[in-house]
Structure formats: C-alpha cells, structure tokens
Write a structure and sequence with these properties.
single chain; mainly beta; Neuraminidase; six-stranded antiparallel β-sheet; five-stranded antiparallel β-sheet; 2 helices; 24 strands; 5% helix
Length: 329
C-alpha cells in the first residue's frame, strides 16, 4: 500500500500543477550545497560499468536554501563547476568533486524583460538550457510559456524571446523539455508530450537561433524514444549526434531513465524519424530517480556525461548528480 501511495504521489507530480511546491520568489545570494558521495549500486559498490558508461562518481545534493532543488537542466565544466537551472526559473552555481571551485556558489532567479514582470512567478517553468561556448550566450526553453529566450553572457540580461505556433500546438505542461544546440548553430527541440500520429514525439529542427524574430520556421521531425519513455533533456555531441535523456514512471520500478543516442540525417527532410539507440538504463538497484538534467564535458579527450535529478521539492525524492565517462567516438 505504501508503494502504491508513493507512485500516486509521483504521478501527480508529473501532471499539470503550475505553482505546486515551487519556492516563493527570492533574490540572488550565496548558496551552500552539501554533496554526499554515493555508489552507483548500493548492493554492489564495486560496479562501475554500465554499457558504454563508466561511473566516475555520484552525489546526493542538499542545501538549507529553500530555493535549491527542482533541477531540470544543467551545464558543467571539467573541473566540476556546475550551473543548474530549476523548473521555477532559478539558477544555481556550485562545485562538486575534488578540489575547490574557483567561483563562489550562488543562487539567483533568471532575469526577465520589463514587459514580462506582470507574469506570475510560477509561470517561469524553465525546463531546458543550452550554451554557445564561442559567445558565452545561453538559451532557455520555458514549458508553460512555450517560449525560448536568449541571454547575454553570465545571464546578465535577456536579449530576445520568441514563442512559436509549432510549440503552442503542444500540451502546455508537456512541451519544451529538451533544447540542444548543435555545433553548426542549429537547434533541436523535443516535445515531452507533443505526439505525432504514429506515437512518436514532435521534434523541431531550427536552422538558426529560435529566440530571434528573423529565424525561419522549423522543420518537423519525429523523435522515437525507447519504448515507454519520454525525453527530458538533450545535448549535442556534434552537428549530427545528440544524446537524449529519457524518463519513465512505472508501478514496478518507480522512476527509471535511459540515456540514448540519435543521429540526424545528413540532409534532413520533414517527417524524418530520429530513432533513439539506447546506451544505458538507470533503474533499481542502480541509482534511479526523476532524472531531467543532462550535460557533457571533456576531460583529457574523453567525453564526460553528467546526469541530474529533479526532486520536485518533495521530501521523498532526492537531488542526485551522477558523473560518467562515455566510451564513444
């Protein structure tokens, strides 16, 4: 009975609830994050390999700050510096792993445009984030607003925002969940619940910046996730290969996640299917929770994959951060 009640609670968390559990507005300030190391498999602490992934470390994160948690997307640097974004428009910067971070840990709300200040605070449901390393600019996808905004380096200000009719056709609470910037400047956006006739997920391929008014309307593609899963985040490895994090909730296993790879056609055409190739699955007895954040860095030429969970600000969920080496070329 206890298990069934927990599953029902978790299912409720995935249903529309614009301001349930979201922290009240607060100003920028310092952030103290505690990181408790965890084995990948508590029943077999020596387990390190998971398909092409090699476990390099994992932590349960916590903080006394009431705004901490709810991580829906993240960016990482090789030294363990993390920039996380919650689903309530909150940025969190902190360091994990050995050594000390060079930047002061902080927590702060995303800047907003003057014309948006009358919108309710709970409506800034930020679910996806991408960065251009050449310019230092950031892009954020807002699920409830079905909008993409571009920010100046350091998230100093909002430079541009745009809504799209293609996204407005998606369910409000199942729209922009994944936003990947390809190395050639294109963007791929995956819908969490915007389904096509064959049961795949609508995917939009933008030729340029989706926050710019001058950008042409995107091409519709179809993302085919592993069976029973929905996409929660994506990050591009190059101009054609994209890693996608996928989530599933079942009575038997509760939350599980699958990391998958898709390859864009060299010359994509409307309606092309992007079939996910599963690389690894996170399910009990391995660390498993509501994984929504995905980032990729490099260390010594090796790709490093970071995966974070969204605790929904609930006492019975955890904020987990996992680090893997990826053996793929």
């Amino acid at each position: 009975m206890r298990r069934i009640l927990i599953v029902l609670l978790l299912a409720i968390l995935l249903l529309p609830a614009p301001h349930k559990n979201k922290p009240e507005p607060f100003g920028p300030g310092p952030l103290l994050v505690r990181a408790r190391p965890l084995p990948l498999n508590a029943a077999d602490p020596g387990q390190r390999d998971l398909g092409p992934l090699h476990y390099l470390g994992g932590w349960q994160l916590s903080s006394a700050h009431h705004g901490f948690g709810g991580i829906s997307s993240l960016l990482a640097e090789p030294d363990g510096q993390i920039l996380a974004l919650s689903d309530s428009g909150t940025l969190m910067g902190f360091h994990v792993g050995s050594g000390r971070g060079e930047r002061r840990p902080f927590i702060a709300p995303l800047p907003i445009r003057p014309q948006d200040r009358d919108r309710p605070w709970w409506a800034w449901d930020s679910e996806a984030m991408a960065r251009d390393p050449a310019t230092g600019r950031y892009w954020v996808g807002f699920e409830l607003q079905q909008m993409v905004c571009r920010y100046s380096p350091g998230f100093a200000r909002v430079e541009a925002c745009r809504t799209w009719p293609e996204m407005e056709a998606w369910p409000e609470t199942g729209s922009i969940e994944s936003l990947a910037r390809l190395s050639d400047g294109r963007f791929l956006v995956l819908a969490e619940m915007g389904m096509t006739a064959d049961g795949s997920h609508d995917a939009l391929l933008f030729a340029g910046d989706p926050a710019e008014a001058a950008t042409a309307h995107p091409m519709h593609l179809r993302y085919v996730p592993p069976r029973g899963y929905r996409p929660t985040d994506a990050v591009a490895l190059d101009e054609r290969h994209v890693l996608v994090l996928n989530r599933r909730l079942t009575l038997q296993s509760l939350f599980t996640a699958t990391l998958a790879m898709i390859e864009l056609p060299e010359r994509p055409r409307p309606g092309d299917r992007l079939k996910a190739r599963a690389l690894a699955r996170l399910a009990p007895p391995l660390l498993a929770d509501n994984f929504e954040g995905l980032a990729v860095t490099r260390e010594g030429g090796r790709r490093i994959v970071w995966i974070a969970s969204d605790d929904n600000h609930e006492f019975f969920q955890r904020t987990l951060l996992l680090k893997f080496g990826l053996d793929w070329e």
